[in-house]
Amino acid sequence: MARRRRLIKNDEDHDPMAVLTNLFDVAMVFAVALMVALVTRFDMTEMFSQEDFTVVKNPGTEQMEIITKKGEKIEKYTPSEDQSGKNSRGKRVGTAYQLENGEIIYVPE
């Protein structure tokens, strides 16, 4: 009888499913830690706040993107060649200058 109890007890210690559940737990902790690290690395904590904001990625380049959050709505705007290139139908209305202290002054033409 005692031998049977020892055999049953040893079988419980070597349950292959227990290893899989432990690996799943470790993978979930790793995934959450990776998401937190990516959010803090790319300064995206604003996405989770209640405040409205605007972010300009790659300003002044062809890959420029403007990301705006108003309330719960997040919009991404990418200027196309038609809007900012030779084919635009707008006209120049003035010039903006940035002073050394960061202040911007607009001078109409």
UniProtKB/TrEMBL annotation:
It holds the Pfam family DUF2149. The chain crosses the membrane at residues 20-40. It comes from the Bacteria. Residues 73-95 are annotated as: Disordered. InterPro entries: DUF2149 (IPR018676). Keywords: Membrane, Transmembrane, Transmembrane helix. This is DUF2149 domain-containing protein.
